[in-house]
């Protein structure tokens, strides 16, 4: 599938493995203002403003009323607003329909579609592979090039197929599948590859779960992650605001049905991950690859390789855990449900099913941050917000929030958090914050119990 999309977009073979590709969708966020400013200062214009879509997500406050959190962040927001207005680019501003985290709104609005090349100056652009697009993150110089030409120079990646073998058990989510894959392959296991996810467990996922699956592709080092489009994808996209309509929809379907890899397709690497007995996953360290079954134990240093021992010891020291320690029952201070990984309506419905009629532990600060205005409004229409508020969660405005703490919202130093986001790097959620990555179900159960918990043991 990767080669098919590449071939369809190749304008010129530049030699030495590089090609000039047409870009179908360029997504911008609040960090894109300086790029637009440089372009304008150079006297160049945006080549195809209709193919660019901008939102505010990274630095905006998710508190009620969206208070300004710093002068610098206010300038960043103003810079994007001024840049897109000058260029004629559509902006989904805060509080308005369509606004939200850039990797949530792309598929949600039908901007990201099968077979499209989708780029954004954000490494989790691989998320859009969940609808069968080729999405990848780009640097600011590349973003400027795309704005000026609607093209990009890229070197072709090798291809990897990860097959999830077997049917996942009840409650095992896409987050568990991909964390297990990252744990097995390592943080650099997919480096240099475009990954295609296949298998019974993948076909059984709805599109929102496939977006979660592809979201963490970058955490195993892969620039691109994709799931072949199928009837589930088409049903999800039909009627979305920017999806093709009428005769164009029929033409699109005909083209999209040709995208899946041929039965005799050859990949540069083939990986199998057995999911039949997979347990809920949770990270113990400071990399998404440092992950264990929720009822497992932190690795023994004696069993680690010489190369791993130093990094394991540093991670354990930072996280305040010990070798061979069980994480179940470990007291948590914060729970964050949100981010471009797990902030969609399906995620919130899972959380609501667990927390309804229960109370968040008194010592826990628990936030739910919807991924978009659409998710927020849908959740409120379904009454999920009341369930969350009655349980003791803070119900916030859409945005990236605690995923990376770029908006000033942060987990306090030394506090332990269970997070549905995608990175648990040192300081990611705030200086000194200790982050355990997990699924929405594990995060919800941990908020109620006040300690890392298995949602399957919550009882009625």
From TrEMBL:
Pathway: Amino-acid biosynthesis; L-leucine biosynthesis; L-leucine from 3-methyl-2-oxobutanoate: step 2/4. Pfam families: Aconitase (PF00330). Residues 4-450 form the Aconitase/3-isopropylmalate dehydratase large subunit alpha/beta/alpha domain. The keyword S-adenosyl-L-methionine does not apply. GO terms for biological process: L-leucine biosynthetic process. The keyword Lyase applies. One of its GO terms (molecular function) is 4 iron, 4 sulfur cluster binding. It is an enzyme of class 4 (lyase). Its EC number is 4.2.1.33. InterPro entries: 3-IsopropMal_deHydase_lsu (IPR004430), Acnase/IPM_dHydase_lsu_aba_1/3 (IPR015931), Acoase/IPM_deHydtase_lsu_aba (IPR001030), Aconitase_4Fe-4S_BS (IPR018136), Aconitase_4Fe-4S_dom (IPR036008), IPM_dehydratase_rel_enz (IPR050067). It catalyses: (2R,3S)-3-isopropylmalate = (2S)-2-isopropylmalate. Keywords: 4Fe-4S, Amino-acid biosynthesis, Branched-chain amino acid biosynthesis, Iron, Iron-sulfur, Leucine biosynthesis, Lyase, Metal-binding. PROSITE patterns: ACONITASE_1 (PS00450), ACONITASE_2 (PS01244). Its cofactor is [4Fe-4S] cluster. Heterodimer of LeuC and LeuD. Catalyzes the isomerization between 2-isopropylmalate and 3-isopropylmalate, via the formation of 2-isopropylmaleate. This is 3-isopropylmalate dehydratase. It comes from Rhodopseudomonas palustris.
């Amino acid at each position: 599938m990767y080669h098919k999309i590449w071939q369809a977009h190749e304008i010129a073979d530049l030699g030495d493995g590089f090609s000039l590709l047409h870009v179908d969708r360029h997504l911008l966020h609040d960090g894109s203002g300086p790029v637009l400013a440089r372009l304008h200062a150079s006297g160049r214009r945006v080549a195809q403003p209709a193919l660019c879509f901008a939102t505010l997500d990274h630095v905006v406050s998710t508190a009620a009323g969206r208070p300004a959190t710093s002068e610098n962040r206010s300038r960043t927001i103003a810079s994007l607003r001024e840049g897109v207005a000058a260029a004629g680019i559509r902006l989904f501003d805060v509080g308005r329909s369509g606004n939200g985290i850039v990797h949530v709104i792309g598929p949600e609005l039908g901007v990201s579609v099968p077979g499209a090349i989708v780029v954004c100056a954000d490494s989790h652009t691989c998320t859009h592979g969940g609808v069968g697009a080729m999405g990848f993150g780009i640097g600011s110089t590349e973003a400027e090039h795309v704005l000026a030409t609607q093209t990009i120079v890229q070197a072709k990646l090798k291809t990897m197929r990860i097959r999830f073998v077997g049917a996942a058990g009840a409650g095992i989510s896409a987050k568990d599948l991909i964390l297990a894959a990252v744990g097995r392959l390592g943080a650099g296991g997919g480096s240099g590859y475009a990954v295609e996810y296949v298998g019974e467990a993948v076909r059984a996922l709805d599109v929102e779960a496939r977006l979660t699956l592809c979201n963490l592709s970058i955490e195993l080092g892969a620039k691109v992650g994709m799931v072949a489009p199928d009837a589930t994808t088409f049903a999800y996209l039909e009627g979305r605001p920017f999806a093709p309509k009428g005769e164009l929809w029929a033409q699109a379907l005909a083209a999209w049905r040709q995208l899946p890899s041929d039965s005799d397709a050859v990949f540069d690497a083939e990986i199998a991950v057995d999911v039949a007995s997979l347990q809920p996953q949770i990270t113990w360290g400071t990399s998404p690859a440092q992950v264990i079954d929720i009822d497992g134990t932190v690795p023994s240093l004696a069993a680690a390789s010489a190369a791993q021992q130093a990094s394991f010891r540093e991670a354990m020291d930072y996280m305040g855990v010990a070798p061979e320690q069980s994480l179940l029952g470990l007291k948590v201070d914060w729970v964050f449900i949100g981010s471009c990984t797990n902030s969609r309506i399906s995620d919130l419905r899972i959380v609501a099913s667990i927390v309804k009629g229960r109370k968040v532990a008194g010592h826990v600060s628990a936030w739910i941050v919807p991924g978009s205005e659409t998710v927020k409004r849908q959740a409120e229409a379904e009454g999920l917000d009341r369930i969350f508020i009655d349980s003791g969660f803070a119900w916030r405005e859409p945005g990236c929030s605690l995923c990376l703490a770029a908006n000033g919202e942060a987990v306090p130093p030394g506090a332990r958090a269970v997070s549905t986001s995608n990175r648990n790097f040192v300081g990611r959620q705030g200086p000194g914050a200790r982050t355990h990555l997990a699924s929405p179900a594990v995060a919800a159960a941990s908020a109620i119990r006040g300690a890392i918990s298995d949602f399957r043991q919550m009882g009625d």
